[in-house]
Structures are given as structure tokens and as C-alpha cells.
Amino acid sequence: MLSAVLDWERANPSLIASNKRTNVIGEFQSQWVGFENHPQDVFFSFNSHLPFQRDQAAGVVFSVQTEGLWKFQRLGLEYAHRIETKTGNLSFGLDVGFADFSFDYDKASSGIGGEDDYHKSQDPLLLTESTGEGQKDNDIVFDLNFGVGAKINKFDVGLSFHHLNAGKAEIVENRLLGLKPVMLVYGEYSVKPREKALVYRPSLMLRSDFSSLQIGMNNICTYKEKFTFGLNTWFWSSMAFAFSFEVISGMQIGYAYVLPLNKMIRSGGSHDVVLKYSFDLNFSKKNKYKSERIL
Prior knowledge:
This protein is mainly β and about 300 residues long. It has two helices and 16 strands. The strands form two sheets. Strands 1-2-3-4-5-6-7-10-11-12-13-14-15-16 form a 14-stranded antiparallel beta barrel. A two-stranded antiparallel sheet has the order 8-9.
């Protein structure tokens, strides 16, 4: 998603509040527009460095993903710790949360409008084997994400694991639906030409669910720390054109259009909108002065 393309914080929990500020992120993505009940994603994050401990950060994340008759909701708490070095820093992060799987059996049993050749009200998969009553429509499982990152001069690398514990939900009786662990590896290098107002950040990404492998590339260019242009591609899968700008100090609005490259997907593409606001929280106590005139 766009927030991960423009900032690795979304993809790696060890990078939360790496700017040593308080950050609020909201994102909405509408995927593969043109399909009925096409996937939609909503994401919200709040994180900040700890009071008087700028090398530690904590936050909360919430996301909702819908696809067809399925809905996946997740709530997680994040913690990150950074160790400063002479050439950069090393960071570790943990995201502990709960994921809720749900399925709309009412729409499935009615064929989203009634019975037809493909939908029957007495479909055995929609009824429990023992009682014949409707299946339960949701299940909550424990979910764990972990990440580590390193910054060495102008080079950034990171490794993160999502759904590390491979939690399994039982929506259909005696049948488990599992979260597949996903690994993401990335490397990014910052290039500053003679024109100091311009920063170019190319990066390479590897994503695997341990049964398949995806290779991607980011090309991010920032001008005067206010305008950001991005070109992202997952080879043989999709390509994204991204743009963001700073509306006011600390507040960014971004938009991305994702074009499918796989001939199996024929749609109007995906649209992604993100809003991010970063600001400083002053945890220090204010000095109180007493005036002799007031006394």
C-alpha cells in the first residue's frame, strides 16, 4: 500500500516513530475497481516516541480488509527500540495483536439476491454437520509481527515477518483457515545530487510467503521535503504511480494508482489515498516563574 511505498514504517514495526516525532496515519485503498465486491482496505496507525526516551517508541494499529463476503480486522500494539551507533542505528520492533476473521453467511446462502444455479439456501458448507444450524460467522486469533532494521550512513536495510505465529481461525466447522507467514526484505539507498533540494531513494524488495517469491522495486524522489514522486513495481504483477505533498507543516496527503500487469486481472486498477500527520509532543515540564508584582 502507499504508506509502505513512501515510508517503510508500515512494512516494518521496528521503524515506528523513527523520525522521533508523533505520527498519525490513515489510509484507504480500493483494489481492482470494476469487480463486484472488489477488495477494500482501511488502515489507521498512531505512534510516538516514549516520554524522555526518544530511542523507544510505542503505537497502535488498526486495519480492516474486505474481499467478497470475507472481512479481516486486526488490532495491534507496537513497540520499537533503537540503538544509536557511530554510523547510524539498529532497531528492533514487535507488533502484538488480534485478528478477527468473519464471513457473511446470509449473503452466501441467499446467493446475494436469491437462489440460482450456484447458490442454494441449504448448501452443506453453510450449515454445521451436527445441528444443521448456520455456521458461526467469525473467529478471533492471536497474531504476531516482528521486524528489525538498520541504517548505515545513506543505506537502509530491513527484515520483517508478518503473521509469524500462523494463527488459524475456524469459520467452517472442523476446517481451519490460517494466516500464512510473510517475510519482507528491503534495501534502500539515499542519493543527494548537487541540487541539495532533491533526494532520490531507490530500493529493492523481496516478499515471500515461503511458497512463492515476489521481487519489487521502488523509485522515490523528494523535492524540498515537500513533494514526493514514486514509481513502484512488483515485477510481472503490478505497477504503481504515487504522489504526495505537504499541505501544512508535518501533514502529507498522498495518492497512488496501481495498474495490474498480470493478464489474469482485468480491471480499472486500484486507487490508494493516504493522510499522514507528524508533530512534536513536548513532554518536558514548563518552567513556572513567579513575579514579585503578582505576589
